[in-house]
Design a protein that fits this description.
Largest sheet: 6 strands, mixed
Structural class: alpha/beta
Radius of gyration: 32 Å
Shape: elongated
Strand content: 5-15%
Order of helices and strands: HHHHHHHHEEHHEEHEEHEEHEHEHEEHH
Length: 501
């Protein structure tokens, strides 16, 4: 039995290695906020969601498969949550069987396996009943295959056979086995046999063979008899133990894969409560530059504040460089984060925070954000920025996307612009998509004057009164970021007034 709800042909790999830059992604994109909402206090759900979010799917077909399963989950949320709960209950129940037992003999192994399979049998019956009741409500290829498998492989006739076999393996009439004699009258080829069907009186008066009775205090005799039983039940014990492991693995994977979808339901419900729109993005094949959105917003900001969050429209199809300038506190960093979140959420098969989104699948997402001063740093901030960019360069490849937020702003504008210009050019030449937020006019204007067909320049809006709209629109870089607005907001006076005093 296979779950196959995350992939059409394989299980979700919970042990797959995370990307080398995952810590930077979590910090810069504030993924802990999203993951905390997804997990809702469930640590296991947090771990599964974290891995699914950071290890994206490689192609649009794989993403579409997961989106279809997600659509079913959103429409049948209660059923999906019940399935997740059932899988967890099954795994919790079987763990109790092993408490206080030492599985050091085939008899103990068989006894424990019988108990576990009896527990699993009850949960499998519940799964089959849920499939019979709810299968018509699901339409995705993933759930359709999953429920069909449950209905075909776990029908009543099969489960009845399982129950009968488990009952027989308790040996209510004793253990019947055969053996052969080898050299030196040693036994070999011990084989467990099915007992003849006899009633109670039939067994008492059966004189068809020889028998002997072990005295109550004959410890050696009992041990010898136990050894014979172990040899006879060894093959059966191993076979049943393997079957138990298979069923256990099925429930483990069912719980694991459903954990991701239930986590996504948690986010969907939170955003719906706040009236925030979500949509399934249209993934485009790797290599085709696509980034067009309507109402794209920062999901983490929405989850944190619970208030109105401004969405942005962007048309960057065919663009490999998006340069964002404009007023301080105008929403540039928020937009950059919304792009990174949308990319990760798209490639793990989630919905995104937008009215619509079309985006290409990328090889990897990288971030290079400015860092606050760190007293433990052994070198300057510029050296630290250069070291991080060098680490990115050692992992980034063509068809990756790099999000830069005020990179190389720790030095003067002339030097910072020159460094950033060389870095961006090198990345573009290698086929890396770059989205760059900067207040360095020399950097942005230098690229703008080149009139590149593959570059888009966005500018954060500012009204004549200094109010921020938090909307980005196409526009050439300006030689000011209106820092006096921030000064006025903090100190309650204009720069000119402060200078006069």
């Amino acid at each position: 039995m296979k779950v196959f709800l995350m992939h059409p042909d394989r299980d979700f790999d919970f042990e797959r290695e995370l990307p080398a830059n995952h810590e930077a992604l979590i910090q810069d994109l504030e993924l802990d906020t999203l993951l905390a909402t997804m997990a809702a206090g469930d640590r296991f759900m947090f771990d599964v969601s974290r891995r699914a979010l950071l290890v994206g799917l490689p192609d649009p077909e794989a993403i579409a498969y997961r989106q279809q399963v997600m659509t079913d989950c959103l429409e049948q949320a209660a059923v999906v949550r019940d399935l997740y709960t059932l899988a967890g209950e099954a795994l919790t129940a079987q763990k109790s069987v092993w408490w206080g037992l030492r599985n050091d003999s085939p008899r103990r192994t068989l006894s424990s396996a019988v108990q576990k399979m009896e527990l699993f049998s009850g949960f499998l019956r519940r799964l089959h009943a849920m499939a019979e009741e709810h299968a018509p409500k699901f339409s995705s290829p993933g759930f359709t295959r999953f429920f069909a498998m449950l209905r075909e492989e776990l029908d009543d006739a099969y489960l009845e056979v399982v129950d009968c076999q488990l009952k027989a393996l308790k040996f209510p009439g004793g253990t019947l086995m055969s053996a052969q004699l080898a050299g030196g009258n040693k036994g070999k080829a011990y084989t467990l046999r099915r007992p003849r069907e006899q009633g109670f009186l039939g067994r008492i008066f059966d004189r068809s063979g020889y028998s002997f009775t072990i005295p109550d205090r004959d410890v050696g005799g009992f041990n010898a008899l136990g050894t014979l039983e172990d040899r006879g039940t060894n093959l059966v014990a191993n076979a049943l133990a393997q079957s138990v492991d298979h069923v256990d693995g099925f429930f483990v994977m069912l719980r694991t894969e459903l954990a991701f979808y239930v986590a996504c339901l948690n986010v969907s419900e939170r955003l719906a409560e706040q009236g925030k729109p979500t949509t399934f993005p249209i993934p485009v094949a790797r290599g085709e530059r696509a980034l067009s959105a309507r109402g794209l917003y920062d999901v983490c900001l929405a989850l944190t504040t619970g208030q109105r969050v401004v969405g942005n429209d962007v048309d960057a199809d065919g663009k490999s460089l998006v340069m964002i300038t404009g007023a301080n506190q105008g929403g540039k960093s928020t937009f950059l984060r919304s792009v990174g979140l949308a990319q990760l959420m798209t490639q793990c098969g989630m919905f995104v925070g937008a009215q619509s989104l079309r985006v290409n699948v990328c090889e990897g997402v990288f971030t290079h954000y400015k860092r606050e001063e760190d007293e433990t740093m052994e070198s300057g901030k510029l050296d630290e920025e250069l070291a991080r960019m060098s680490a990115i360069a050692s992992h980034v490849t063509a068809d990756c996307i790099l999000l830069c937020n005020e990179s190389f702003a720790s030095t003067n504008e002339r030097e910072g612009s020159q460094i950033a210009r060389q870095v961006v050019r090198a990345l573009l030449d290698e086929g890396v998509e770059v989205v760059f937020v900067t207040h360095m006019f020399d950097l942005a204007d230098g690229f703008h004057r080149q009139k590149l067909d593959t570059a888009l320049f966005l500018r954060a809006g500012r009204g004549d009164d200094g109010e921020r709209s938090y909307k980005l629109s196409p526009g050439a870089p300006l030689p000011t970021s209106y820092g006096e607005d921030s000064y006025r907001k903090v100190f309650g006076a204009s720069v000119e007034t402060a200078q006069a005093n």
